[in-house]
Amino acid sequence: MVEAEYEINNVVLTVSYEDLELDLEKIASNLDEARYDPEVFPGVAYRTSKPKASFLIFASGEANCVGAKTVEGAEKAIEDLTEELQDLGFDVGEPEIEVQNMVASVDFHRRFDLEEIARNYHYAEYNPEVFPGLVFRWEGTNVAILLFVEGEGVCVGAKKKEKIEEAINRIEETVEPINS
């Protein structure tokens, strides 16, 4: 049996600078690649290229970091943002960081009979008129895998790489391959 392969495409983290009010106008006017239009959105959208990540920064001292492909890359981008905020005169200490979601694409190297899976697994949701993939969830976890007929999948909701691997293993162990 060929083992599934996966690649993490996006890591989402929350960033909290405790007890801090940020001047968003000052941030937007001093950081390249920063946009701020308070009539459209109440935060600064900021993009970095090395490492590649995007931020939504709020006046409350909270931020979201998305778009990095690794937790380490996201942490480096957050470290760089923290230094830039310090350079702008903000009294930011070490931020509190929490991984919220990891998104990974998966190649199972086999086809799936989505209708058969939906009939046999009560935690599988399949409505092809609405979405072409089957949503496979397990009780007691926020992790889900979207499965597609050709053998691709997308794993969402994991906060650790091990949870992605666990979900992939569950699919490989429980879902029967199509007999070709």
UniProtKB/TrEMBL annotation:
- Say yes or no: keyword GTP-binding present: no
Q: What are the protein's GO molecular function terms?
A: DNA binding; DNA-binding transcription factor activity
Question: What residue spans do the sequence repeats cover?
Answer: 99-175
For this protein, the record's PANTHER family field holds: TATA-BOX BINDING PROTEIN
Function recorded in the entry? General factor that plays a role in the activation of archaeal genes transcribed by RNA polymerase. Binds specifically to the TATA box promoter element which lies close to the position of transcription initiation.
Q: Of which family is this protein a member?
A: Belongs to the TBP family.
What name goes with this protein? Answer: TATA-box-binding protein
Source species, please? candidate division MSBL1 archaeon SCGC-AAA259D14
